[in-house]
Amino acid sequence: MSHHIVELKGLGFCYPDGTPALCGIDLTIHHGESVGLVGANGAGKSTLLQHLCGSHVPQTGHVRVGDVPVLRGTLREVRRTVGLVFQDPDDQLFMPTVAEDVAFGPLNIGLPPEEAAARVDQALAQVDALHLKHRPPHRLSGGEKRAVAIATVLACSPDILVMDEPSANLDPRSRRLLIGLLRGFQHTKILATHDLDMVLDLCERTVVLHKGRIMADGPTARIFADKELLAACALEPPLRMQGCPVCGAA
């Protein structure tokens, strides 16, 4: 693929009841970029992400990953390149044990069982969850499920990592470990999140969505310093850019 460029042109999508979710989205993300996708609830973040791996297909416009259009007939090829971590880990975990869940992807892209098993251990170790290997997913805490869901994607070695609310349900230590893990991921990262401090840590570029439209796209520090823009999109600056709540000092 062409350095795994992600391209959305004129992307439009409405829910079955006719409610518009995305309205003419134009967006290009180049190989190796770390991009934060931010917006209030209902802005269209999750819907946009689901178009990148084919969970939704465009109703108008198009989506491409490299040279491959995201269509029903190309999903197998697209999903070898794009790994999506869903907002709700229960949407991603369905096997009797954690090990089987993490092995599911590698086995389905044709890896031999011994290589899939090695990837299971490697991916679980990356998210500090190797000790959960033989546990049933439904017996895990919310944070443990989140870690395992991330491991299911890492085990497939995607070139483009797409994450929907990656820090949800994580305690401070787990969040810190996740940030360290994502810093070490050398390929393309697209993070949709309300955790603007995480975006500030990881993403040099930020895209602001509001009511299904792109309102801003540029360097993260500049976007987050624009208080009028953030307020218009029902957002607030990251906590560490808000100053002391007691004395008001920066």
Structure, explained:
This protein is of the alpha/beta class and 250 residues long. The protein has one domain: Rossmann fold (3-Layer(aba) Sandwich), CATH 3.40.50.300. It has a six-stranded mixed sheet with strand order 6-7-8-3-9-10, with helices on both faces. The chain has a four-stranded antiparallel sheet with strand order 2-1-4-5, with helices on one face. The chain is globular and about 55 Å long.
- The total strand number stands at 10
Q: How would you state the average pLDDT, rounded?
A: 91
CATH class: Alpha Beta
**CATH superfamily membership:** P-loop containing nucleotide triphosphate hydrolases
Strand order of the largest sheet: 6-7-8-3-9-10
Q: In one word, what is the shape?
A: globular
Amount of helix: 25-40%
What's the main sheet like? 6 strands, mixed
Supply Rg: 18 Å
> How many structural units, i.e. domains?
1
Low-confidence stretches: none
Whole-Å distance between the termini?
45 Å
Helix-strand makeup class: alpha/beta
Strand content: 15-25%
- CATH topology, by name, is Rossmann fold
Number of helices, where a helix is a run of at least 4 consecutive DSSP H or I residues: 9
Q: Specify the CATH architecture.
A: 3-Layer(aba) Sandwich
